[in-house]
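Project outcomes to date are best conveyed with an example. Our students and postdoctoral researchers have been running inverse folding experiments weekly, and each run begins with a structure described purely in tokens. The record below, which covers 175 residues, was selected by the lab manager from last quarter's runs and is presented without edits.
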């Protein structure tokens, strides 16, 4: 762009800078990751690992420690550094808050269903995790605008199968 050309107004509005928002987000991140780390240490083990070997708690604990450390760094940055301009962040879009609330409700329903573990229906034991995961994937894809039914079903089934095979069958983590 030469010096004689005027900037084009494309209707883009950047988010306004807010130290309070950055601090609140960092505090929420610290609390959430600390809760994750606590839950990671509470994972039930079928069998304790020998010293020097990994068990089902290892990677969640490593991720939890890293997440807590990054969250604390984020809090320090939010409180000590000057405000960033936030020119690269768009304002909240129409419907964005509603989509976030629906996402939280769907995720909460998933966790509630997952806690059932299995149900007995007509004398058959049915695992709830694969069904709940498929419904979670499909419903989140619908909330965020995916409308093609074939790819919606295929993607949901493939992701569910992948998670079930890797964690339930190969790693033998109780789902």
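After processing, the design step wrote out the following sequence:
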């Amino acid at each position: 762009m030469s010096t004689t050309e005027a900037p084009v107004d494309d209707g883009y509005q950047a988010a306004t800078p807010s130290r309070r928002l950055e601090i609140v987000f960092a505090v929420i991140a610290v609390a959430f990751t600390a809760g994750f780390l606590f839950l990671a240490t509470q994972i039930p083990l079928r069998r304790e690992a020998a010293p020097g070997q990994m068990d089902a708690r290892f990677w969640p604990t490593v991720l939890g420690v890293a997440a807590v450390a990054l969250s604390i760094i984020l809090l320090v940055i939010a409180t000590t550094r000057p405000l960033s301009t936030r020119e690269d962040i768009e304002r909240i879009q129409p419907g964005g808050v509603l989509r976030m609330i629906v996402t939280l409700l769907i995720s909460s329903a998933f966790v509630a269903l997952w806690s059932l573990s299995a149900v007995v229906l007509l004398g058959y034991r049915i695992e709830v995790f694969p069904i709940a995961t498929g419904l979670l994937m499909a419903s989140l894809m619908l909330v965020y605008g995916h409308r093609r039914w074939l790819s919606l079903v295929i993607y949901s089934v493939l992701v569910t199968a992948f998670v079930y095979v890797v964690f339930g069958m190969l790693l033998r983590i109780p789902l």
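Residues 50 and 161 are 30 Å apart (CA to CA). DSSP finds five helices and two strands in the chain. The training component of this project remains on track.
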